[in-house]
Amino acid sequence: PTATRWISANERRQHNDITDLWVSWLGSVYDLTPLAQAYADDPLLLPILKRAGQDLSDWFDPATSDLRTHVHPLTGTVAPFTPDGRFLHVPPVMPRADWSSDHVACPWWLDRQYHLGSLSRQARHIRIVNTLTQQEDVLEVCGEETLTQIQDRYLMVNSHAKGYMWKYLGALLDMTLTLQENGIPDETAMLHQLAMDPVAWLPTLHVYFSDDLTVA
């Protein structure tokens, strides 16, 4: 099975305009860029654009994974609750000649094609030291990720990351396990309580270049 892709809130926030639009709701992250491009001139895109890069869980009912509803004060009928204004694929409260439910086979919030991954609840930072070059890098990672997934993030810094062995305090790490499972807890909260700078006390992982040139 494909490993879950974990995405931090900070990562989501960086994708916050019509050309690159991520949002999250109910624990999942979605890339709505294709939707935004297709409806760029539609005013019903505006409520989504205003929340680009943000979490939209307040729009959704956790029990149904669908839009929250309320009894509309004008019609007395149950209607979608849209506190930021009506948006794409939400039917109007009153019948309109320019609206037909036939136009929307699947509303965007139920369309899995936009799903990217899961929203991390355990974003944390680590320091990685390349023992070959002595370069140090601080990465934000997700606590739910395995070391292999963190290694994939490190590829953005070091394109040969797959050719390195990963160690912590001299011990070889199990790449199939998370940081916590490898005995590397997140002590950020404790350090804050002790009025200590978490950045100065980040766990440091050392990567050692391997001679296996088949991994490049």
TrEMBL record:
Keywords: Cell projection, Cytoplasm, Cytoskeleton, Heme, Iron, Metal-binding. Residues 4-120 form the Cytochrome b5 heme-binding domain. GO terms for molecular function: metal ion binding. GO terms for cellular component: axoneme. Its main location: cytoplasm. It is found in: Cytoplasm, Cytoskeleton, Cilium axoneme. Signal peptide: none annotated. InterPro entries: Cyt_B5-like_heme/steroid-bd, Cyt_B5-like_heme/steroid_sf, Cytochrome_b5_domain. It comes from the Eukaryota. Radial spoke stalk protein that binds heme under oxidizing conditions. Required for the coordinated beating of multiple cilia maybe by functioning in a redox signaling pathway. This is Cytochrome b5 domain-containing protein 1. The lineage of its organism: Eukaryota, Fungi, Fungi incertae sedis, Chytridiomycota, Chytridiomycota incertae sedis.
